[in-house]
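Deliverable D5.2: sample structural annotation.
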Amino acid sequence: MLAQGLDVLDEAVAAVGGGVLGDRGPAGAAQVQDDQPAVRGQTAEVAEVGGVRRAAGIGLSSSGGCSNRNNATCTSLEQVNAAIISDVSTLRNASHCALTITGGTEVGHASGTYSHWNGYKIDFSPTSCVSAYVTNSFTRIADRGDGAARYRSAAGNVYARESNHWDVTFCGGSAACTSAAGS
């Protein structure tokens, strides 16, 4: 099941690449070229996300074995902000930890400007390696209203330790985002 869950996004990419949306994705979708830096707030295409995620050795797990953004049991990276893909890769390289994404832009998360749905948040499995890296490398800030312990990175990203995952708001230097995620 684990291998099947890790390949869910790959299957979605194959479906998109099969001509349903063509090579350029849906009409109006932000296009990120290989020679263009990712821009905060710009969404990445599913194929790009899958390629970068796999190249960086970042896993993906879905309790429902799917990637449908409109199904809460799926793990979707559709409409994730393009710069987050780079941020996740940086986290993987800096921590030297295996990373597994367990939550993305699918329904079922809290709403808000800097939310999962809007492409700012990703959930990770709370391995001992990831937890040690976050708690030893980042600044402890006030607990969230629900009691989740929070840490802020030098880049302004906010890591909240929920009961079964790390809930990470990737702010990329946006003071408004860091403030919202830190309050």
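Annotation notes: Confidence is low (pLDDT under 50) at residues 1-39. The beta strands are 58-60, 99-103, 121-124, 139-141, 149-152, 158-161, 166-169.
The annotation will be released with the project's public dataset once the embargo ends.
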